[in-house]
Structure formats: C-alpha cells, structure tokens
Amino acid sequence: MRHSPGPDRNLLLFASHRGGSTWIMQVLGTQTGLRALNEPFSVYQGGALCPIRVPRTAAGHLISFSDSDEEARVRSYTDDLLSGALAAGAPTRFWARSYPRKSQRILIKDLHAKALIDWFDRNFDVEIIYLVRHPIPQAMSCIRNRWGASAYAYLRDPSFAGVLGSQLKQYGERVLQQGTPLEHHVLTWVLENYAGLRLLNQKPHWVFVSYEECVLEPDSTLQRVATRLNLGDVGKMRSEMNVPSHSSKMSLASTREQIRLGNSKSVLNGWRQEVSDGQERALLGILDRFEVPLYRPREDLPQLSKLNFGGGLPNNA
C-alpha cells in the first residue's frame, strides 16, 4: 500500500465501543484514496507497534499525559500514522476488491484516546469527526459482549479527576461500588465523552454526528458530512450505509435483521423493550449529574441545545 498525501486534511473519527464507529468507518472508507486505520491507539487492535510506541495505561485508555516524554511518544506515533509511514490498523485483506492499493488521505478511527480530543485538534492538521450513540443501548451492547466498564480508569487519573472535582469523583466511585452493570457502562460513556461534550459548543469546526441521525436521516446526514469533509462520492457512501458493519456480528440477530430491512425506528427503539421508563430516567440522570444532558428520556436524537457550557481538560493538551 503506497501513500502520497493529497490536498485534503486527514480525518480523526472519535467514538465509543458499540457506537457505530465501524459502520461509519466503512461508509467513509468507500472514498477513493482513503486509507482507514482501525483503532491504532488500541493495544488490542493497533498491531505490534502500538504497545511499544504508546504508553501503557489503565484499561488501555489514553486520558492524560503523565509527563512530556509520554506526550512526545504519542505525538511521534500519531505523526507517523498521519504521514502514512505507519499503517497500524490498516486493512490486511489485500486480495479484496476494496483493498486500497494507493492512498492520499488517512482516516483514523479511535475509541481509546477520546479524552485527548482537544489535544489532537490543536496539535495536528486534521478534521475531527465526533460520533456519539445513545448511552443506554450502547451500554447494553457492551454488556451483551461481556466487556467490562472502563470508568475506573478515568476516576483514578489524577488530571481527569482534578477536573471533575471531589464531589463528582465521589459520585462516580459510588456508582461503581453500588450501581448495576448498566449504570457502570453509562458512567463510562459519560466519562469518555466528558471532554468532548464540554468543548462541543466551542468547536464548530468539529463534525458532530450521531448514530441516530445516520439511522433516521441517512441522506441529509451523509450530504452534510460529505460537504464538510470534501468527500466526493456520496452515492458510494449511501450504498454502504445500508450494509451492516463488520462488527454487527456482535449485535442481536433481530437488530441485524432490522438494519437489513431498513426499519430505522425498530433499530433505535428496540432496547426500550428491556428498560422501563423509570430505569431510563435514572440512567440518564447520570448524564444530568455530570451536566452533559445530551440525551433526554423518550427521545432518540441528541439534544445539542442542552449543552450550554464549555471548558476543556487542562493538561490533556
């Protein structure tokens, strides 16, 4: 695979596990000359070089830098990814028709360094794509796949905990000690997205996308994303949008069938059959407690107008 940088800026897609990121990466990856790197900051996905070049961290999440050496290591690794010198997480099925023989633009999908989203934005010449999904179905999917919650890593990080303050840190610890697995995963969603949601109103150049928009309003969402990111072939993206992602094997069979049939409402609302109205309100109360009320009870789409404050994470920069 040969890489020769073109005129368009590289892309960084930040998302959470089971949030639709593989699906969106496949959609964007239909564009000619785009090389998609799947989770190169993950010790589980990024290949042999990741554990060598990226600092070891709790639960595999990059949350803040302990010193300038750690920052320099991540900066150097990212530079090599964006320049095409490294291909950690790149497609390996070289026999496939879709395999990119040549590339001009890099797309990095990340699920493990979202707390550093502002650092990436300010230190690299990239387009930021910020993808979210409703925390309750996302959490339920993680539990079905027997994945542990990573909230403890954020609460134990000195820099991150310092930004939260003692009351929110104690509240988060209490949820982990006394809460249900579903509450643990919703708390993880909140902490993973805390930095990005705090900054969202200050970052109009970020391309904010929700999983729910992609399901309910695919045409307008794709057109908006294509225009913002200078992606030419919307038709290819639209065709791929109807195809379940490579990770859909982790979804319920009923969900995969609804995706195949194009039943968007069923895809988004199926989880409510397993959660009462009271449980939904209580779980979304965790978002309220951290003052990031992006999703509201009985509503599918995120409510950006509810995010009425700003402020980043010092030292994640």
Main sheet makeup: 5 strands, parallel
Q: How many discrete domains?
A: 1
At the fourth level of CATH, the homologous superfamily is P-loop containing nucleotide triphosphate hydrolases
CATH class: Alpha Beta
Q: Within the CATH hierarchy, at the fold level, what is the topology?
A: Rossmann fold
Q: Which value, in Å, is the CA radius of gyration?
A: 19 Å
**What topology, given as strand order, has the largest sheet?**
3-5-2-6-7
User: Spans with pLDDT under 50 lasting ≥5 residues?
Assistant: 247-252, 310-317
CATH architecture group name: 3-Layer(aba) Sandwich
Q: What is the terminal-to-terminal distance?
A: 33 Å
Order of helices and strands: EEHEHHEEHEHHHHHEHHHHHH
Annotation field: number of helices: 15
Instruction: Describe the global form.
Output: globular
Report the portion of residues in β strands: 5-15%
Overall pLDDT, averaged? 86
Structural class of the helices, strands and pairings? alpha/beta
Helix content: 40-55%
What's the topology here?
Layout: E1 2-3, E2 10-14, H1 21-28, E3 34-38, H2 49-53, H3 68-83, E4 102-103, E5 105-110, H4 117-123, E6 126-132, H5 135-144, H6 151-156, H7 158-164, H8 166-178, H9 181-199, E7 207-210, H10 211-216, H11 218-229, H12 234-241, H13 253-261, H14 264-269, H15 277-289
Parallel strand pairs: 1-4, 2-5, 2-6, 3-5, 6-7
Helix pairs in contact: 1-12, 5-9, 9-15, 11-12
In short:
With 317 residues, this protein is an alpha/beta fold. The chain is 46% helix and 10% strand.
